[in-house]
Structure prediction request, 219 residues.
Amino acid sequence: MRRVLALLPLIAALAGCIDAPQAPKRQTVQRSSAYTPDRPDMRQCLASLGATRASFSPLPDQYFGAGCATLNTVRLASLRGDYDSLALTNLGPVSCPLANTFAAWARFGVDRAARQILGSPLVRIETMGSYNCRNVAGTGRRSAHATASAIDVSGFVFADGRRITVLGNWNGGTAQEREFLRVIHASACKRFGTVLGPAYNAAHRDHLHVELSGGNYCR
Ligand SMILES: [Zn+2]
Prediction:
């Protein structure tokens, strides 16, 4: 009798399962407090990102339809320079491979250029975001932003308090500041497949679009 009593809740639960209307299936899987991806290449990517000492959390895959999705993405809280952490502003989900390339560029491309050219370490990278379900302007083609595979970088803040923006300093400010922006643009071109800045068109006058495209397009 005790065994039957012990089974009663289970039987009731099973009955409830059969009778209850089926809840829509979640597209995401969440384990404990942190999402852990199943794919080995994603786990490897996250391990590489961890090795850069970036602060981040993996995000569950999400499909938004119409060619827009965030798969294998992370939320980056901060990156590491040679000596200190680098803050980030306004950044949404970023694909893990892009996050790795961005972390390397921030440290070896931007932070070191800041100290060499401006005499002050980098403390913050300002962005205009990463994920955005949209087309490439003037086309019917989905932007790399529609899959969180591109970041728009708009400015930089340094330990001495100076702030340099693409809009204000690409053609303005001091010769040093203009040189800094051109040097980090060139170093971005070595790491990302596609880099678009003010020299590309007016739509990019206020940011550098950096994208892991597998191509070699630097403007
Ligand atoms: Zn962009």
